[in-house]
Amino acid sequence: MKATARKPASAARERATRPAAGATASTASPGPRWTFLTNHAHVLILLSQDPSLRLREVAARVGITERGVQRIIAELEEDGYIEREKIGRQNRYRIHAKRPLRHPIEAHRTFDELRALISD
User: Which of 21, 22, 108, 115 is deepest in the core (most CB within 10 A)?
Assistant: First the structure.
């Protein structure tokens, strides 16, 4: 039986705290390693606060890439949570805040209720 070498625990910790390949400065910044809300919720909240935010700004504030924001917006649009309106070269987003949340645990609530819970 061949013995396998184990990496020291410090190497595993270093990998866990090191930014992922291709991560930008905004995604590699020190901060919480997890949050209670998903990136989808973060994007939706930001767009509900300012429907004309540029993807670059959303990405910077959420801490993900622009491509990640594009994917999230496409999914939110596909599932009927937002509508995109093109105004010149800029997009404006309309939020369908009365749609129920997706997970069975929270499906009895709407995005509007979530927004009210976390707003100032």
Answer: 115
The predicted model gives 60-65 an average pLDDT of: 96
CB atoms within 10 A of CB 62: 21
Query: Rounded CA gap, 118 and 71, in Å?
Result: 24
Structure tokens at 108: 């009895």
Q: What is the second-level CATH architecture of the domain 36-118?
A: Orthogonal Bundle (1.10)
47: burial class by Cβ within 10 Å (0-12, 13-18, 19+)?
A: buried
Q: Where are the domains of the chain?
A: 36-118
Residue type, 70: Q
- This prediction has a pTM of 0.72
